[in-house]
Design brief:
Layout lengths: L10 H11 L4 H4 L3 H11 L4 H14 L3 H6 L2 H8 L6 H16 L8 H5 L6 H12 L8 H11 L8 H14 L5 H14 L19 H4 L16 E12 L2 E6 L10 E2 L2 E3 L4 H10 L4 E13 L3 E12 L10 E4 H7 L7 H4 L14
Length: 361
């Protein structure tokens, strides 16, 4: 248990290690409160290497809280395209508006006040407070929970809030007051680079190898203890790439719910046969002239999975289609219409690129 372990001994070797091993990351170059906030929200559920170009483009387009607060929604979602979990950026904009109205456009240098902002939880508030403002509060994410439970040999379930609360309490007690930001970043870095989540940790590179309980007792494969989440719901879908020359059909998703307000290829529940797919297109007042079966695809959300099959259907004209369908040129869709990564497997059939892909030469 963490209470039975001499936690103070982790501080000095960790900070020394971090000074020699910290990665060069764009948000570390100028760790303003805004930069820390944007990077930490982007890094939720997303790998560092994927986030780097998104962060740089986002900051270039929206360099401050005022520009984020005032950004038109579709432009905002387009900047986020491919990162997924779009409520993250919507909540950021809501919080940015609050900061403009209540805090004169500056993120508050107060942990409790940061927690009041939409989309900012304990971890993000701790990261902003410690890294940008030097306030000695923990920032406990999955990486931190893993390295601390391993070094202490603590087998408490990290999915329980009570475990996280205990970890935060103990870390707050030992945090170096003048190096709070470096300490929190070092814990995150150790979890990302050495005490890995998948596969064997690089124990011989770890600054804690002399006193780590998991290393001593060979427990790394059993820690952290994490209770299993509920199985994801499976939803079958048929996706349609409907095209007339260089134009394709998009439709906008509802304002609320999954992938709210984004654009998608027409789709229906279930896996349709070729005959059923043609009937669907005819029901939209379109005349199909060619149909091609596309490969299957799968996209995983936090709570469910889409198992998709697809068809590319060429039609004689899009002008007769029923209302609600949007006809766009591929080039325009890359620039203007945010399409979720769930459909990435099918965008290649119109040479349409999403997210980072459209910036590759």
């Amino acid at each position: 248990m963490i209470e039975d372990f001499n936690l103070e001994q982790i501080v000095s070797p960790l900070l020394t290690w971090f000074k020699g091993h910290a990665r060069i990351l764009p948000w570390r170059e100028e760790p303003t409160p805004y930069h820390v906030w944007v990077s930490e929200i982007m890094l939720q559920q997303t790998r560092v290497e994927a986030v780097k170009p998104y962060f740089e483009r986002f900051i270039k387009e929206l360099p401050d809280i005022k520009s984020l607060a005032e950004c038109e929604e579709e432009r905002l979602l387009k900047l986020w395209e491919g990162l997924g979990y779009y409520n993250r950026v919507r909540n950021m904009q809501i919080a940015a508006k609050t900061v403009m109205e209540q805090y004169d456009g500056i993120l508050p240098a107060d942990y409790e006040e940061l927690l009041k902002l939409k989309g900012i939880g304990q971890y993000t508030a701790g990261a902003i407070a410690s890294i940008a403002y030097g306030i000695a509060v923990p920032a406990v994410d999955g990486n931190v929970l893993r390295v601390i439970t391993r070094v202490c040999g603590d087998d408490s379930d990290i999915m329980k809030q009570s475990t996280k609360n205990r970890m935060e309490k103990e870390l707050r007690r030992i945090m170096p007051k003048k190096e709070a930001g470096a300490f929190n970043q070092a814990l995150m870095e150790l979890g990302a680079m050495v005490c890995l989540p998948n596969g064997e940790p690089k124990c011989m590179e770890c600054p804690w190898r002399e006193f780590c309980v998991a290393k001593e007792k060979n427990l790394w494969n059993n820690l952290p203890v994490k209770s299993k989440a509920k199985p994801r719901r499976i939803e079958d879908k048929t996706v349609f790439i409907i095209r007339d020359g260089e134009k394709i059909v998009l439709q906008k998703r509802p304002k609320k719910g999954l992938l709210a307000g984004l654009y998608e290829f027409p789709n229906v529940k279930g896996h349709l046969s070729e005959k059923e797919a043609l009937s669907y297109v005819k029901e939209k007042n379109l005349v199909p002239v060619h149909i091609e079966k596309l490969e299957d695809a799968k996209h995983i959300f936090s709570h469910m999975e889409w198992h998709m099959t697809g068809y590319m259907i060429k039609v004689s004209s899009l002008e007769t289609a029923e209302s609600g369908m949007l006809f766009v040129e591929t080039a325009d869709s890359e620039k203007k219409y945010p399409i979720p990564a769930a459909f990435a497997k099918y965008t290649k059939y119109m040479n349409l690129r999403l997210g980072n892909e459209k910036f590759k030469k």
